[in-house]
Amino acid sequence: MNFRYTPESINDLNQLREFIAEKNLLAAQRIANELLTGVEKLKIFPRMGIVVSSAPDPEVIRDLFVDQNTVRYLLSESAICILRIWHNKENERDL
To answer: Structural domain boundaries of the chain?
Structure first.
């Protein structure tokens, strides 16, 4: 199973890392690594995320919780597309 990242998800990850790095560079690197490790688990368990009931097609849009962050992804037969990433204290991101 291949991964694809939307430009929005890459931007989300960069903003999250930059925000945390202002106070603690090591924590920013650790959190980024935890997120990527969590996403890698989707290769083995692609349906481990929670169904997003408000999505147009809830069976294929899921949320994966990694520590205090949410990774929203689209599940297809050929790839997992990472749509958005945000800290759980933030508002839910639009698709």
So the answer is: 2-87
